[in-house]
Amino acid sequence: MQDNRGLIINRERARQLIDFSGLRYDNITPTDSDAIIDWHNKAWVITEWKYLEAELPFGQRLAFERLTDDLERSGKPTLFMIAAHDVYDCDKDVDSANTPVREYRFKGKWYVFEASLIITVKEMTDIFLNNLGIGEENFSSLCLQCAKTPERISLSSFMK
Q1: Is residue 137, in this structure, part of any structural domain at all?
Q2: Alpha helices in 82-135, H assignment, sequence order
Q3: Beta strands in the chain (DSSP E)
Q4: Is residue 90 part of a domain?
Q5: Would residue 15 count as lying in a domain?
Q6: What are the pLDDT digits (tens) for 35-62?
């Protein structure tokens, strides 16, 4: 049996939008999330993809910020990433793993990568999951080391 996890099975349903307009409470409406990983009930990785420089709307950013911080306070390390893709054609798939991370939230703080630094969603997720429990300075340092490496040194050198 082939493992189809992570693949889009029904493209027609994937294109179908969910209308949240009937779920408005004061000025609050639901938000969606592009990807959430519950890592063996030990840690969380949440990712939102945006086209180029598109910003998260204020309410969505606030919701992810609060969710990330609440999960962190529950005792489970949590990483929230905003990735920026450049696939203009909406009929073409975005390669989620190889999309560059533009900014991230970790341990209650926002971090923004300089435009010249590139680290992919997969690379950053690997660093995070393979180094659970390290402090924010060490995690940020590992990410910057990886991002600054133009020859893309193997991530195994950053793993425990």
Answers
A1: yes
A2: 121-130
A3: 35-39, 43-51, 78-85, 101-106, 109-112
A4: yes
A5: no
A6: 999 999 999 999 999 999 999 999 999 9
